[in-house]
Amino acid sequence: MTQGTTTEEKLREFVTFSATVTGFSEFDLWGTGQAEAYYETVVHQEGPDAIQRVISSDPAVTPADPVVKSIIKLWYVGVWYGPELAGRVDVAAWTAPGRSGAKPAVPDDSQPGPSLARRAVSGSHQAGAGGAHGGGGRTPPFVVSPEAYTEGLLWRAIGAHPAGSKAPGYGSWANPPASEDC
Amino acid sequence: MTSYDDADTVIFPAGAATQTSAAEAARGEWDAVVVGGGMAGSIVADQLSQAGYEVLILEAGPGKDLDLAEYESYLSRFYGAVVKDNQSPYPFNPNARMPRSTDTMPVRPDTPRDDFYLVQEDKYCTDTTFTRVLGGTSMHWEGKALRMLPEDFNLKTKYGQGLNWPLSYDDLEPYYRQAEAELGVAAEVEDQAYLGMHFPQGYVFPMHRMPPSYLDQTVARGVDGMRVNLADDDYTLQVRSFPQARNGVPNAAYDGGKGFVPVGAVSTSQVEEGERCQGNTNCVPICPVQAKYHAGKTLAKALRKGNVKIVTQAVASKVEIDEQDRRVTGITVKNYQSLASDSYETYTVKGTVYILCAHAIENARLMLASDMQRMSRSKLIGRNLMDHAYLLSWGLLPEPAGTMRGTSCTSGITDLRGGRFRGTQAGFGVDIHNDGWGWATGSPYTDLVELVDERGLRGTELRRTLGNQISRQLLLAFMIDLLPDRSNTVTVDDRYKDAIGNVKPVVSLKIPPYTMRGAAFARKLATDIFDKLGAEDRTTYDKDRYSAVEHDGQWYNIVGGNHLAGTHIMGTDPVNSVVDHTQQSWDHDNLYLVGPGSLPSIGTSNISLTMAALAFRSSTHIVRHLRAAKAPATIRS
Amino acid sequence: MSVPASEPSQGSRIQTIDELHEYLYKGLQLEHATLPPYLTALYSLQPGKNADAWHVIRVVAVEEMLHLTLVANVMNAVGGTPDLTKPDFVPNYPTHLPCGPDYFKVHLRPFSREALDTFLKIEKPAQAAGEEDRFVPMDWAAVGLTADGAAPTQEKLAELTESASVLGLVPGEPTQRFLSIGEFYEEIIRGVNHLEDQARRAGTTIFTGDPARQVTPEYFYSGGGDVIKVTGRDTAVAALTLVAEQGEGLYGGIFDSQDEIAHYYRFQQLEKGRYYQKGDDPGEPSGPDLHVDWGAVYPVKPDIKLADLAGDPHILAAAKEFNRSYATFLTSLNLAYNGQPALLLKAVWEMFRIRDSMNRLIRNPLTGHPGANAGPTFEL
Questions:
Q1: E strands within B173-284?
Q2: CB within 8 A of C179, min separation 6: which ones?
Q3: B570/B380 Cα distance (integer angstroms)
Q4: Rounded to 5 degrees, what are φ and ψ at C139?
Q5: What is the DSSP letter of B634?
Q6: Residues B585, B307, B145, CA angle at the centre, nearest 5°?
Q7: Taking the C-alpha atoms of A17, A20, A23 and A28 in order, what is their torsion angle to the nearest 10 degrees?
Q8: Domains in chain B, start-ordered, CATH in brackets?
Q9: Does residue B494 register a pLDDT over 90?
Q10: Which of B77, B272, B276 to substitute to test the interface with C, most C CBs within 10 Å?
Q11: Residue of chain B whose alpha carbon sits nearest to that of A181
Q12: Total-model pTM
């Protein structure tokens, strides 16, 4: 893959790469409306070269670059789990819809205080919210924007819809599940 | 053509949440002062206003009209919240805090005081919650609307357990129907007439039952006809539809063939949302389209009549009592300026009668903070705290069953809600959760992390594996009866206060052996059901969690049901109870405590429908009380 | 429109039951023709940023579905057969919708001031001053079909009549159009009255349809008005009146007979930045403020066609798939209107799937058209 020069080319490269690792088509990824926000999130959190680095890394190498894992999860649920949170099932549980239970040991600015509420409404966490790269500190997981949640690809992968959005219609739940070909 | 007079009952009068200041309210003399704008408070206010009385509602939550924009800000906050617990849609409010399941932990002397609202010092902690915004906990309730069984009302006589009610099922039955109309319940009588529950000849529910999910159908194939023996009795199990307070298909036969007009979304302008349930699978914490009933629908109706006013950001802090005649003389509120500031002003509002509708924990907290236990003949304020004990069991079905679709829960198993076994162990209802293992494990996010991070899956393999794995999830939630027990308490302690100096509730709730015997049986039943279905049991209990309870050498996790009740139970005399069968305080003549706190037992139905029925019933008594106290004012509108 | 207008003395151009059926078919076509432009504008709104516009357009679209259902109910009641699956049922956009003094085109385009202006024109109340003003000679030059304004050839006229490329033409006399959609429905009401009077004199009725074909409120309800089961003259007139006035308002007022704000005034709220409430006069809403963010819109390429997508094969495939889904939706709807009303619930599921695939199309940037996004083409 040749290295893109303009932001638009870089963005397209990011989407092309993301299509390979997520298992969804480029059309589907653009269809979320989140490509740009996710691109900026990765750049902001991991630095300007991070995307180029993972794109050019050998996919056969395991374990893969943890940033790739963060990117996959970003597309799937709209949450930025920094590479240092890879494998943290407790953090995943804490951030899942419908879960109840105590919070795990994780950097957290989710409460108390109205900060979370403000951020959630303004929906602009990825830009200017203080990236992790270079600072040395760990970033608590965050939802990129309210729409990032509703555009999560996980729900399509499981033949469902995000809890609280994209409803399938009254009574449709009585039908056998239908999964999309992929 | 249907008369469309009802169509605008969901218009919330613009400015209603802010136009009455606490100062103004304190200058007047109201017929009734209602504390709490949730389900009980809204029903009582609406009923009293229909009888022509002037009603003031005091609401601790933020001063926002219930318009669509406000409602959708809840939704947007939920979408954007990194932690999506059942309080996540609602703004953090330091001046009227709410418990959050994520805050659950035993409070120790060094625990930062801002980390929690519900103070729990025991090893076992409940993660139960209630909500303090306009509309109350009905904003996040799931919307199941079951009646209690006839035998629940005389458990003591029948099985020697718990307490009898001063009311029977038959006393409450007409009010259940009234509540089913108000909440818009979808169910069929033929499904719900079991274990002695009966309905008048010809009754139909306002709407037809919600279609059972494909998952329900899958479970039914294994469960229907399954036999269990319990305390020498045989029971045959079947999967049964739950009554639900959400808009479905109206029953044309309702009300003698008049039919039923579902109530849509609440807003200050004509928005025409809130039609039929669309299957957003998000009843808790928020229905995105307001297909589910919430108290705002009743509240909007009440506020439109003109003789109901509401003061928001007004936290009731003290019930003022005349030491001589023990009548309530006022409610003192702390009226805070904003969520961002802890500055407030204090006012005392006055009425002919006072009705506390602030939910079980807040009603008790307020009375205890007002030193009312001193005057209580029963000393039962804050005692007999109850909540359903939930035991979760989860397994993986052999085939995809379409999990994660439908309302949160459409069906369950209800055959073990009642029976002679209740002499020795708790009855329970079983919910088939359409939303998979989420509640127990944090799926599907945990599956994602496992597959991506641990198994290194990516691309179409990841996509396929996830789909196959999650669509097979089955979570059975056993909702187990918890009997009234004086040692389960809400108390107050001056060491724990919120931002504006109100004491926080201190809760101590222990899960008794009677309930745990039910839990142990439930666990065994779950494994039998999984066997029948060919499902792989994936349940694990963790003894290191705050929800861990040991029984017979086994550890279980018992999680909260958000069905808090019993802190001011009703009974037959001032010594065995806090209120009488009308929910009037035995000790304070002009005080009514309306809400789940009055329930002397909770059986195996979530408390909302029963609470609503009781609110309707008490309203008729409060009207009589007011009529005797004074002539009604003319309706202004 | 002139409501009510059931005095038997008024003449009607509808003289036979077949003509009534033809009018009702054109009614179905007309009601449906507003859906693709409304849906395109609706889904062009970026999520979470234009809630007021979102709700206003959504309600109107839902009510267009109600209107479609009401017209189908009338058609079924008078023994007709609704058919939403005929070739040319769906217009090839942009389509012409002359209304009042205006000759304008209805485009598929993103939400914008221009789109809103068109929506207002579609729904604009226009009441004829007198009987002779109810029909307007077609100005063929104004719609660009002939240079000199003369009527097109008979063949061309027949084709125009069948297709939906000029909406609001008088069936049987396509050289004329109705002054407004209201007058179109007025004519149907007169036809119903005339034919029913005639039938009654002969001891029969035109309401011969099977009542089981009616879509009843169990199957269709929304916050935006109730479906009416049509079984006779009164319910037919009520249904048609609701369709007409829910667009334009009743007697020049902002509310219809079910106390719903008429579409014209719903859209006007977006223009005025304020909601209407009870007691308001037209043009002067006094309810809560509303806010429109004209910029928070995906730049859907206006009147996009499959032919525009040659350079984007993935998008082309998705657009074709969308058109197939839309055809399936119309087929389900048609079955619901043809004796299986319970299938309306299934049509709603398809509607929701269409919503999801429209959203995906609209968010995809086109490589061949910089700055523009894809969108549904509605080429069936």
A1: 227-230, 233-236, 239-241
A2: C99, C100, C126, C128, C133, C134, C135, C136
A3: 10
A4: -100, 95
A5: P
A6: 60
A7: 40
A8: 4-99+106-629 (3.50.50.60)
A9: yes
A10: B272
A11: B464
A12: 0.93
What residues form DSSP beta bridges with A128? none
Distance of alpha carbon A25 from the chain centroid: 16
Sequence length of chain C is: 380
Residue C356 has which token pair? 């999801």
| C284 vs C272: CA distance, rounded Å | 8
- Tracing tokens 């079951």 back to the chain, one arrives at B146
Instruction: Inform me whether the C-beta atom of residue B410 falls under 8 Å from chain A C-beta atoms.
Output: yes
What are the pLDDT tens digits along chain A (182 aa)? 455 678 889 999 999 999 999 999 999 999 999 999 999 999 999 999 999 999 988 766 666 789 999 999 999 999 999 999 999 999 999 999 877 666 776 665 554 433 333 333 333 343 334 444 444 456 899 999 999 999 999 999 999 999 999 999 999 999 999 877 77
Which residue has 């009987």 as its token pair? C131
Q: Quote the domain boundaries for residue A152.
A: 7-163
Min Cα distance B219 → chain A (Å) is 13
The residue with tokens 């525009």 is C308
DSSP E strand boundaries for B298-341: 308-311, 314-321, 328-336
Q: How many Å apart are CA C230 and CA C245, to the nearest integer?
A: 17
The total domain count for chain A is 1
A50 within domain boundaries: yes
Span B235-288, pLDDT tens digits: 999 999 999 999 999 999 999 999 998 998 888 877 777 678 999 999 999 999
Nearest to A26 among C48, C314, C359 (CB): C314
**Taking chain C, what is the end-to-end CA distance rounded to the nearest angstrom?**
33
Chain B residues inside the 8 Å CB shell of C51: 68-69, 72
Distance from CA of A36 to the nearest CA of B (A): 17
Give me the interface pTM, i.e. the ipTM.
Answer: 0.93
C324 touches chain B (CB under 8 A): no
In this structure, the dihedral spanned by the alpha carbons of residues A42, A45, A46 and A48, taken in order and rounded to 10 degrees, is: 70
pLDDT digits (tens, 9 = 90+) for C237-274: 999 999 988 887 766 778 877 778 899 999 999 999 99
Other Cβ atoms less than 10 A from the Cβ of B108: the count is 7
Task: Give domain status of residue A130, yes or no.
Answer: yes
The reply to whether A87 falls in a domain is yes
Q: In this structure, is residue A49 part of a structural domain?
A: yes
